[in-house]
Amino acid sequence: xxxxxxxxxxxxxxxxxxxxxERLDAHEIERDLEQxxxxxxxxxxDGADVFCYGAVREQLDAxxxxxxxxxxxxxxQLEFELRHWHPSAEQWEDPDTPLPxxxxxxxxxxxxxxxxxxxESAQQGYPEYEVRVQCESRRAAAELAEKLRGEGxxxxxxxxxLLVGALDEETGxxxxxxxxxxxxxxxxxxxxxxxxxVYEERPFRPFAYLGGLGG
Length: 215
Hints:
This protein is α+β, with helices and mostly antiparallel strands. 41% of the residues lie in helices and 23% in strands. It has six helices and nine strands. It has helices at 14-26, 29-37, 57-74, 103-124, 138-150, 169-182, and strands at 5-10, 42-46, 49-54, 79-86, 91-93, 129-134, 156-158, 161-166, 188-193. The chain has a five-stranded antiparallel β-sheet with strand order 2-3-1-4-5, with helices on one face. A four-stranded antiparallel β-sheet has the order 7-8-6-9, with helices on one face.
């Protein structure tokens, strides 16, 4: 399913959000929209907010009309926010924001996204991305962890796998490329968005994760 469009419905009440989501699941909105647009509208709840995801704007415009009618019937006060996924900026933006139409625009947006990720890493106290290295043995993981720490690269070592923080996706990819060449044979290396809980046991020093990429 293509979910490039998102409609956020702010209810300001978690109970109301759950009730609205249940009504939407039971409503003919799913069948009607799927018949009209050949794709589903997916509904999810996060606290007091309800989110609808769809393939095209027209789907969510139709969904909003259904929700507004439900709200009017029930006396609900809701707020709506429509967003479109921006592929190069990799974030939800106003649907009227123009997409980049040149290589220079794409490069500029890429630089802005990297700078934003680094700033968020520093502000929140943990890196936006992490490189996961799964080794075939605990010993191999320990030896690799010792080597990286010797270069000043902070590492979280759990049995046969390592987690190395990266301030941004670009840095994570560069580190992953290096570790694929240096990790013991049979190791698996991948880049993921960070799971914060893993780093609670080891304080994060802003910008320390940018070092050690040479070689």
